Please model this.
Amino acid sequence: MDNIERRTYAVPEFRVDQGDDMPPKISGHAAVFDQLSEDLGGFRERIAAGAFANTLQNADVRALFNHDPNFVLGRNKAGTLRLKEDITGLAIEIDPPDTQVARDLMISMQRGDISQMSFGFRTKNDKWDKVDGKWVRTLLDVELFDVSPVTYPAYTQTDVAVRSLNQAIAAEIPDNSYIIDIYKRKLMLL
Model:
């Protein structure tokens, strides 16, 4: 697992909503498309739409807290983590376990102490450009390992929240697969 990179994002809204008889859901975006990161040590980075398309077909991705494998919140192969690309970026939904770590995390989210997301990945294809004299790396295709609510961000544009099942159904995003297909075609032209 050499060369794993992690990128972190602050979220515009981060809340905890739980129904009386419904289990909570953590949802939001672990990555956003076409937004520049903070300086990552001499360069900035952006994520192209479609960068996660290949890895989402077969990757075994975990949801962790602060990228720590000791704090597993969900896993896509177990059905407790759902991932998809939408028009904004990498959308996530986690069914957190009834553990002390998850309960403590949701309290910290309610208070606003934890308000960022991140993802761990390996680059499969990228492109480098000079923009206004500074290097910008565009991620075109990545191998995804984890998504994580985190304490410190590298990006400031993601969103994540905890909500009840009823709220999740009411806020369900329509299928945007046609938009992803358009972005995939654009990437092939680069």
About this structure: The domain at 5-189 is CATH 3.20.16 (Serine Protease, Human Cytomegalovirus Protease; Chain A). The chain is about 20% helix and 45% strand.
